[in-house]
Amino acid sequence: MYHLSLQGSATKSEIYIGSGVFSQTAKRVAETFKPTRIHVVTDSNVAPLYLKKLCAEFPLDITTTVIPAGEDHKNLDTVAGIYADLSEAELTRSDLVIALGGGVVGDITGFAAATYLRGIHLCQIPTTLLAQVDSSVGGKTAVDLPQGKNLVGAFYQPELVMIDTDILQTLPERIFNDGMAEVIKYGFISNPEIIDMISAPDFKSNMERIVYECVRIKRDVVQADEHDTGLRMILNFGHTIGHGAEKVGHFTELSHGQAVAIGMVQAAKLAVKLGEADLVEQITSICQAHNLPTVLPYPMEDVYNALLHDKKRTADSINFILVHPLGKANIHTIELEQLHQLMTAE
Fold first, then answer.
1. Which of 134, 177, 272, 325 has a Cα at 20 to 30 A from 117?
2. Has this prediction a pTM greater than 0.90?
3. Residue in 225, 249, 245, 246 with CA at minimum distance from that of residue 235
């Protein structure tokens, strides 16, 4: 088992990674919190698999919210339902909310915890690879608006993150592959050894180490730039065009990981047009090896118009993450007019 700590500006996160970590949840909660009430938020996919098992660990009565699964439910209406359940359960600021699920559950629950009573304690138990290596760590919480992805949110660190890599063995292949896009991202922006590890035929036997390496990178980046004003932007490699593609697909046609994989390939092509290193073939091949798409299925003009609502945009430019050389990400500020020309040029 691995143990990491992430020191935020207001809260310290304790992160446990390894086989069997899920069964230690009650013990770690008792070490970290002193709640009289616990409320678990999960979704309709995860609840039948893990909710009863989690609740059975605690001597307290546990109240729950089960939201519909899917990115299309990551909105303010869903948050309002969680608020109502928290109020009915009479949670106070000394109590605890647990997010049990993938990235959507973690984002929604984190935002609800950050804003209900101006902040109540939060524990994340990520159940997908994508959530384990990325969204459960670092305190970014958000929901989508019709105008774009993650436009309403808050920085709010969970005080406890329980990452059980055994759970990965039960994931459907398409959900596992979805998370591999974020793993690939970490390899290209920071540690090429990750690419070597996931290129091995038996890489799944090494998932505890792979997850740890990804989380360690994110921990280090977040501690250096918690509020995403500088270095933390490198974690958005593949996400600018990826988020635009997700929006064009109404957040239902492409999964987040699929969109990020496509976005990384497109970012690599953009880098070549700007005279940077050509990593297109390398990114394409590793994504395809993990059954991730690499071809943008929508008109580039539509994707460009969608990314104009991206959070990384300023008045007339956007911060774009490019990789050169392998293992080093750089933040490029590109004027929107130039970006439009680059994206639409053959």
1. 134
2. yes
3. 225
